[in-house]
Amino acid sequence: MSGPERRADAPGAGWALECSPHDTGGHSTGGHDVVQRGGGASTRAGNGATIASPGNGARPGNGARPGGARSGGTTCSGPVPSGGGDLEWDRAVELIRASDDICLACHVAPDGDALGSMLALAQALRAMGKRCRASFGEPFAVPAILRFLPGQELLVEPGRIPAAPGLMISLDAAGQERLGSLAGPAGRAGALIVVDHHASNTAFGGVRLVDPAAAATAVLVEELIRRLGVPLTRDIAQGLYAGLASDTGSFKYPCTTPEVHDLAGRLLAAGVRPDAVSRELWDRAPFGYLQVLAGALARARLERDAAGGRGLVWTTITRADRDSKDVPYDQLEGVIDQLRRTDEAEVAVVCKETDQDRWYMSVRSKGRIDLSEVCAALNGGGHREMAGFVWTGPVHEALDRLRVLLDRAA
Ligand SMILES: [Mn+2]
């Protein structure tokens, strides 16, 4: 069988990983990546973040989409209503204060924002004296580039998360299914707090700290930690900085606002060394990686007429390509950043064969084509300029599907 991968719980199903380190825990279930803001209060948070809260439609612990229960509900992404107070933040803080045992989950195949945000929050909860267990769905393996993050002693295998936690907090996951095997416990939790910044977020969870304008989930986690009254230690700041640096493409993407730099400044003041974090995230690799990269660049194809004449550049990396140089899959994240430099192409694609005989398709645009829509049509998702999807079957079929969609979107 070939076609877009549908199983969110499949081993290695987090295409987000390879879209990283600038990615996207996003997964869209359709072509309508709009955030439902209607029927609920919007909160102007202390750091300027706007929180879309679900209003009456939400109940703690409700894993289901409130759907039509919202009065006056709209699915617009227009101006956010002002006012409404800090209700949603207050509810989150109250729930956390009232719980002694809290479970955290982030999306499968975590990137720097997912894992960094989760470990930062886990350490803050521990500092409050809470019992805290953090995890993510299988495959339960921390990517090599994230092994420097502090707080990993708080990670437990997903099987050790209770079937029905009293309080669960979901981080950087655009939909409940992005939690993989932890989607079940999230749905059965007594209360579920969702912290996320994907425009495609699917209105799950009872308390929703969801802000598509936030550059990273880490921005929202910092706000939460501040409201909990926990001081920023160096170790907590390290996770938040990894999230912020990852999702802003090292402070290069358009989401890099003055507020992002303000937060980065506070994190540096807490003791983060940006050179050390950058080296871990982006500036190191085994020698074999250079050879795999060289091969990928040598195989790259430029199709000037593709993407409605805006140009497409693509390459492939098979499992054999990297096995021959002893390079693991999770070392390949930087390849797309070389390919996407191509002046003649609006869209860049790296097709990477996983260890599970699937293809992860990392897709980037320069902003003229909305890739979140294109990749959602292939059961993936992401953001406008960076997205991805998983494919089973011959990779040329994935490229064919993509070419058609890109032409249509151009
Ligand atoms: Mn993120």
From TrEMBL:
All residue ranges annotated as the DHHA1 domain in the record: 325-406
Sequence ranges assigned to domain DDH in this UniProt record: 102-243
Recorded superkingdom: Bacteria
One GO molecular-function entry: 3'(2'),5'-bisphosphate nucleotidase activity
Composition skew (Gly residues), residue ranges: 58-71
EC numbers on record: 3.1.3.7
Enzyme type, top EC level: hydrolase
Record key words, sorted: Hydrolase
Disordered: annotated segments: 1-85
PANTHER family assigned to the protein according to its UniProt record, in alphabetical order: BIFUNCTIONAL OLIGORIBONUCLEASE AND PAP PHOSPHATASE NRNA (PTHR47618)
Protein name per the record: Bifunctional oligoribonuclease/PAP phosphatase NrnA
